[in-house]
C-alpha cells in the first residue's frame, strides 16, 4: 500500500484519566509520526495534540481507531494530497 500524509487533531477532554493512554498509543506509532505539537489547557483540564503522520490508510485508521476508543478523546484526521 502507498504511504499517505495525514494531519491528525486529538482533543483530550479528560487529561487526568486519558493522557497517559494517549501517550502510550502515540509512542507505539512513533516511527510514523513526523511532527507532534501539544497544547495543554490545564485550567480547563483539556489538551490538544496535532500530529503529522505518514503511513498507509490502514495505519492511519488504526491510530484513529485506537485513540477514538478512549473515553474523553476526540480525533479528526485529514489526508493530504501530496
TrEMBL record:
Sorted alphabetically, which Gene3D superfamilies does this protein's record hold?
A: ACT-like. Chain A, domain 2
- Pfam families recorded: TM1266-like (PF21699)
Q: What is the protein name stated in its UniProt record? A: Iron-only hydrogenase system regulator
User: Which InterPro entries is this protein grouped with?
Assistant: Acetolactate_synth/TF_NikR_C, ACT-like_dom_sf, FeFe-hyd_TM1266
* Species the sequence originates in: Tepiditoga spiralis
Coiled-coil stretches noted in the UniProt entry, renumbered to this chain: none
Specify the taxonomic lineage.
Bacteria, Thermotogati, Thermotogota, Thermotogae, Petrotogales
Amino acid at each position: 500500500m502507498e504511504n499517505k500524509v495525514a494531519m491528525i487533531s486529538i482533543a483530550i477532554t479528560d487529561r487526568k484519566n486519558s493522557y497517559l493512554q494517549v501517550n502510550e498509543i502515540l509512542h507505539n506509532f512513533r516511527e510514523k509520526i513526523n511532527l507532534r505539537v501539544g497544547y495543554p489547557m490545564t485550567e480547563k483540564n483539556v489538551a490538544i495534540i496535532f500530529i503529522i503522520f505518514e503511513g498507509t490508510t490502514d495505519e492511519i485508521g488504526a491510530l484513529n481507531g485506537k485513540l477514538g476508543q478512549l473515553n474523553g478523546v476526540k480525533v479528526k484526521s485529514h489526508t493530504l494530497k501530496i
